[in-house]
Specification:
globular; 244 residues; mainly alpha; binds fe (ii) ion
Length: 244
């Protein structure tokens, strides 16, 4: 539950969070060929397999990244932003839940993708992976909070929904797909709010004269995170174009 006090400090920085959202959703990758084709469910099976295998390489360590940020956290606010999220990632959110990486592996199996194949991450998948790996482990927690909150959780519906749509249509899967179900927009927005509370608390902890500069830094980190996602998707887009 979010307290009134937490709501108030997030509200205090609402213009800042609004501008972080705006720069993230405006990125051209979300209007690019791959996402557009996923939205209209016109990506053939073989291409979906390529995308989802690379996506697995990209996100398989997400829980570990959140744990690394937790380890670097300097304040209880920063840690609190991550606790539920880590539990959910590791399948401890509710009885019977599985780790998200397992749910993704199960989806891949249903799609006929063999994880044991000797497939490797594309160079651009590796670049994007390294950005988040490094950001989570080798940076201050407040920096990582911008990359994983406004730069990721806040906008993940921009790629998760098109992916789900294309997979369901191509494979004729009925009902919910567990991996996408645990990443529904509402859940991701809740995660994003937890990150916002931590960021706002962090800004409040600074002398007022430093907050403006810190917010500018936060904006450039958010942009860099979105750029990393764009690098991942543009790598797939480029590969698929050459296969056409
Ligand atoms: Fe997840
Ligand atoms: Fe999330």
């Amino acid at each position: 539950m979010i307290s009134c006090e937490q709501e108030e400090i997030v509200e205090k920085y609402s213009d800042h969070f609004f501008s972080l959202l705006n720069v993230s959703v405006d990125h051209e990758i979300w209007h690019g060929d791959l996402i557009t084709r996923l939205k209209s469910a016109s990506v053939p099976r073989q291409e979906l397999k390529t995308l989802m295998l690379q996506y697995y390489f990209y996100v398989k360590d997400f829980a570990r990244w959140l744990e690394a940020i937790y380890g670097n956290a300097q304040s209880p606010f920063e840690q609190a932003a991550l606790v539920n999220n880590i539990a959910e990632e590791k399948g401890r959110g509710a009885p019977g839940e599985k780790p998200h990486a397992v749910l993704l592996a199960e989806l891949l199996a249903k799609m006929g993708i063999d994880l044991d194949e000797r497939a490797l991450p594309l160079a651009k998948t590796q670049v994007a992976y390294s950005y988040f790996n490094d950001m989570s482990k080798n940076n201050a927690a407040w920096q990582a909070l911008y990359a994983f909150g406004p730069g990721t959780e806040q906008i993940s519906d921009l790629f998760l929904e098109p992916m789900e749509n294309a997979i369901k249509t191509e494979y004729g899967f009925r009902g919910d797909i567990d991996y996408f179900l645990v990443h529904k927009e509402e859940t991701e927005k809740e995660h994003a709010i937890a990150f916002k509370i931590a960021i706002a608390s962090h800004l409040e902890s600074l002398p007022p004269s430093e907050r403006g500069f810190r917010m500018e830094e936060g904006l450039s980190i958010t942009l860099a995170a979105v750029e990393a996602h764009a690098t991942f998707f543009s790598g797939i887009q480029k590969l698929l174009t050459t296969l056409h």
